[in-house]
């Protein structure tokens, strides 16, 4: 982050907060684009069969709506990182410096993985055709709204996982890549629901272990 002009040992200014938001936004685009590709391709194909001239604009509007949701999340994540920095709970490696806080984040994310709300959001993400058939709206305005709705389901599915980045390192590229692959498996793999629950149990166990470790 120092290379981006951010200060790690003193209060942030507006530029620091903006660069943090930009970092999160770029990271979310990179992480979420692969998993949203199936629904985007389906949408393009369905619109191509209806009106070839309208298909590009509809796909663009859908993608814009989807990314708008993740831009809003990125703003919230940047504010959370700013708050942790101001509270001296963020290390120079951009992960929480409090073991107890890290443990609490892991346990909370793990518990969320086991909730019915997570399962419902994941079910929508795992059925792109079902989403389009049940939520179909015509035109670019309709596509924008569909993109926002699908983005909300995706956010409901993945927001807690993104919180784990505060534990392992916001810019830890190995963990970012691993989480991107996990999200793909969770959404597109044949046993995605089981994988999600198994990961939840693993995160709870890891959080308990960190919490129980001597300070």
Can you describe what's shown?
This protein is mainly α and 215 residues long. The protein has one domain (13-212). It is built from nine helices and no strands. It has helices at 14-50, 55-86, 99-113, 116-125, 128-135, 139-163, 165-168, 173-188, 192-212. The chain is globular, with a radius of gyration of 19 Å. Residues 1-5 have low confidence and may be disordered.
A few lines on this structure:
With 215 residues, the protein is mainly α. The chain contains nine helices and no strands. The relative contact order is 0.15.
Residue windows where pLDDT falls under 50 for at least 5 positions: 1-5
Mean residue pLDDT: 89
The class by helix and strand makeup works out as: mainly alpha
Euclidean distance between termini CA atoms: 28 Å
Compute the number of structural domains: 1
Helices and strands, in order, run as HHHHHHHHH
The helical percent reads over 70%
- Counting DSSP E segments of at least 2 residues, the number of strands comes to 0
**Radius of gyration, CA atoms, in whole angstroms:** 19 Å
Report the biggest beta sheet as strand number plus sense, adding barrel if it closes: none
Report the total helices: 9
Kindly estimate the percentage of residues that lie in beta strands according to DSSP. under 5%
Shape estimate: globular
């Amino acid at each position: 982050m120092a290379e981006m002009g951010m200060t790690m040992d003193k209060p942030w200014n507006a530029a620091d907060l903006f660069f943090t938001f930009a970092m999160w936004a770029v990271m979310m685009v990179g992480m979420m684009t692969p998993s949203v590709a199936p629904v985007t391709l389906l949408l393009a194909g369905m619109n191509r069969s209806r009106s070839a001239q309208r298909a590009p604009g509809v796909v663009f509007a859908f993608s814009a709506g989807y990314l708008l949701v993740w831009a809003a999340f990125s703003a919230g994540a940047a504010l959370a990182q700013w708050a942790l920095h101001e509270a001296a709970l963020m290390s120079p490696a951009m992960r929480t410096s409090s073991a107890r806080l890290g443990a609490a984040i892991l346990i909370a994310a793990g518990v969320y993985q086991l909730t019915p709300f997570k399962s419902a959001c994941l079910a929508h993400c795992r059925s792109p055709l079902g989403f389009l058939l049940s939520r179909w709206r015509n035109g670019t305005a309709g596509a924008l709204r569909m993109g926002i709705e699908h983005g909300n389901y995706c956010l409901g599915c993945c927001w807690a996982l993104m919180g784990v980045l505060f534990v392992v390192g916001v810019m830890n590229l190995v963990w970012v890549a691993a989480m991107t692959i996990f999200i793909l498996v969770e959404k597109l793999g044949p046993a995605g629901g089981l994988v999600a629950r198994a990961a939840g149990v693993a995160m709870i166990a890891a959080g308990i272990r960190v919490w129980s470790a001597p300070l």
